[in-house]
Amino acid sequence: MESRFAATVVVSSPEHEGTAIELSGDRLTVGRLPELNDIALEPDPEHLVTRAEHCALERSGSTWTIVDGGSVNGTYVRRAGELKRVEGRLPLRDGDVVCILGSMNHQDGARYFELAYETTADSQATRAAAEPAAAEECLSYDADEARLTLVMRGQRHELHIRAQAHKLVAYMAERSPALCTHAELMDAVWGDEPMHSREELAKIVWELRKELEPYDAGHLIENERGLGYRLRTCP
User: Coil, strand, or helix at residue 90?
Assistant: First the structure.
């Protein structure tokens, strides 16, 4: 059965969030200077990120791996709410967040550049394999009370999201498990407002997945490459 694999990272800095980059080729370098790297982490006024190849993303088949370049300040991955330093190399999972130190001060402590890793595998077999997990954990949305809840192993966890995210979730929940296209979702969030982009839409999805991240439940928002998103809601 034909399957298409795609991966993206949503890159955010300590001050800015939400630039989605589709991973392509077999190797992408990450560092401070744009002329020396495929993905540049800037601004970096404290020069905490290595000029060239602080780390790299390498692909083998359908697996992307983060490879530390021997940087002084290290490369980290946040998985299921736990921050772990990369020792050499680490294969990435959907929902992982690569963290690279971007700011350090006495008031705010450590703040990071983040590369939120997302994957899609568009095939009937992939969606069928995901069904058992959806039965154990799912999202519930109460439109009347504007309340989004994660249901997991018999427990309910309310998720606090901003107004635009509520518009997005309300639209997707009403149509779940159907796929919602990018155009439909942008219309649901912004209506006739001009000058909005898919990057802004990706930022809202990234924020939602960040709320789900401590529960290792980011997969409940599925990404169909080039098409849109699907929400896994409770029956």
Answer: strand
